[in-house]
Amino acid sequence: MGDKSYDPGRSREEWTRREFLKLAGAGAAYAALGGAGVLSLPRSVLAGPKVVNLNFTVWSYSIDTIQDNINKFQGAYNGAITVKLNDVPWPQYHETMVNRLSNKTALHVLYNGGDWLPEFARAGWVVPLEDYLPRARTFYAPKIVGYALQDMTYNGKMYGLPYYADITTFQYNAQLLKDKGVAKPPATWEELADQAKFLRGKGIESPIAFEFAAGLPTTYDNFTAMMFGRGGEWFDKDLNPIFDQPNSAARQQLTWLAGVVKQKLATVLPHETDVVKAMNTGRHVYTVLWNYNLADANNKAVHPLAGQFKVALMPGSTHETQGQCKFYNLTRYAVDQGQETVDAALKFIEYFGGEYQGQYSIAKRWAVEKGLGFGQLPLFEDADVKKSFGQWIDFDMFKLQASKARARRHAVWEGIFGEFARVQLVRAISGEAPVDEAIGAMAQKVKELRAQFK
Amino acid sequence: MRGALKMARGFELRPDRLRPAGWRTDTAMAYALAGGALAVVALFTIYPVGYALVGSLYTLSPILPRSFAGLSNYGLIFGSPYFGFALRTTAVLALATVPAVVLLGLLVAVLLSRPFRGATLVKVVILLPWTIPAATGGVMWKGVFADAWGALNATLYELGLVHNYIAWLTTPRLAFLATTIAQVWAQFPLAAVLLLAAMQAIPGELYEAAALDGAGGLRAFAAVTLPHIQPMLVVVTLFEILVALTAFDLIFALTGGGPGTATTVLSYFIWAESFKMLSFGKGLALAAIIAGLSLVLIAALMRLMPREALVGEGR
């Protein structure tokens, strides 16, 4: 039989089956004893520190800054709340979110806007913030600028705290205007066309640059702001269309736009960054953009003509403009996850859009670093914000234009209408369709949508 | 061996026997064998088509309750001027791109069919546009045609040919031209490769015989090459018509269907109705209409073409 403990055919490192079984048995017994010991511990000790995980969805803008803010938030709460950031391209945000929310994707907090709020709220995908954080109404609402509060409100309920709130402004190259002998910026759209013709005679072939593209939600915003300058509106208080009336501000403005584009007094570009770059070539004098773009245009580290651009009141009879607010919104999904998740999400929303240790630190950061507008009234008096804004805008002019800003009236179907309207606006502006046809198509769409959503 | 022979005999069609030997077993076997394939076809073709057809009769939207709509989705589509625009744009795109793709593909195939140094490398390079995903191609062409920062405007400006950039993508006609160019660029390589393969299958003796008969290059092309590649030409043409009818991703990336609706083809229209207007019922109805149109068009073309064109002369 011989000695079974020694086998010349195997090395000393190799195990026999018996050795392996012995060791495995001992390991299993040890693990079982250990497991029993662990199970006998109190549940609180067993669970360790509870971590709540949140999913936060945004559109793709300054992702690095958002992530840095998230890191700071997680640090402030010692890792008890973790936040996973998801971003969606801005042009596809609406339809992407509709599909995710309708399919009950795990989203706890998301960026929302006044134009989509009625749709999301009616579908039950998002919930009013004030129902879960009563001080949203009592403490924060009085400190929020009117158009921002309006954009965050649906059926009398406040749904969020501002990510940013901005106005659309009329921006112009003051240096170029002065050099060409024009004393002051235009006060009306008709005066703008006259100045543009004058400047063409002075060698500037296309003095106006506008941002319009069928695929861009901002198209609808830009047009709305221009129409507001004439005192117009899309809908009356009962959400009946008024833009299709014979001499409506919308019809006047669209006719004006199609005219200046046809005469090549205005150039149409597909994105705000294109417009800012084009303005910095010195080939264009005027534009209409969300105000934060002026911070970019006047950034001396980036653009050659920085410092030459100023804001004037929106041309038109009332000089009104559009103000809007994008905000942090709590989802129904988060609520369904239970109180711990809701508490964590509320902490997150308040950290990002409200006060944390007496400071609107995140909103202020967006304002100071990126020039984003804000909805929190205390920031209008904040020394750091004033100083930062003062580097690229006349702050008093900014406040004056902000005082003339208002939000749009939002319908539950506005998300869909906005998609449709911007295509029609571009068709008319580019000369692809007559203005009356585009206005008629939009009115017909409203009729269809009202019938569907009655 | 005997079993195999028996089975083979069992499958023979004999007019004098209504029920072949081992009929029950063989039929079951036949059903079993075909069943798997049929199940796959049913799962991936019949079910989606059926689902689409049924869905097209409903109001389907993530923000509205589902309700039966009958044929109203079809009524809305046929009543909408945008269906007409999209149909016309698709037809014009097909008319502009298909002949260009086939002719360019043919020209390239002829050039590549002759041996020259570096032919393999050239073939690979020629095929590259086809291997690039259409959406990526769209983004690349956007880099070429972009109004303010595109390579084309920069080149024209540097050469002193323009003083201001040309609004390629924001002027309706120019945007359509840009789309056509990009579509031809993306499609001609496949046409060239298929036609080249057909050309290389032609026996060399035929060209030698043609040469002995005194035929020059053009004559040999007309008398030998064209008749032999005719079936492939038909296949390529039909394929390119289908590609033009279903073009989407390149257009989505390049123009987004705009400016306005200048480059909105039917496929883009389906996407916009479904995902922008959130009207999936209408999108499905549109898809059904387009599928029907494609079938009718292809059947008509097949019918109009002489049989020789489909099977090749003398084959």
TrEMBL record, chain A:
It holds the Pfam family SBP_bac_1. The chain crosses the membrane at residues 20-41. Keywords: Membrane, Transmembrane, Transmembrane helix. It comes from the Bacteria. PANTHER family: ARABINOSE-BINDING PROTEIN-RELATED, DIACETYLCHITOBIOSE BINDING PROTEIN DASA. This is Extracellular solute-binding protein. The lineage of its organism: Bacteria, Bacillati, Candidatus Sysuimicrobiota, Candidatus Sysuimicrobiia, Candidatus Sysuimicrobiales.
UniProtKB/TrEMBL annotation, chain B:
Pfam families: BPD_transp_1 (PF00528). Residues 87-301 form the ABC transmembrane type-1 domain. GO terms for biological process: transmembrane transport. The keyword Nuclease does not apply. Keywords: Cell membrane, Membrane, Transmembrane, Transmembrane helix, Transport. InterPro entries: MetI-like, MetI-like_sf. This is Sugar ABC transporter permease. It comes from Candidatus Segetimicrobium genomatis.
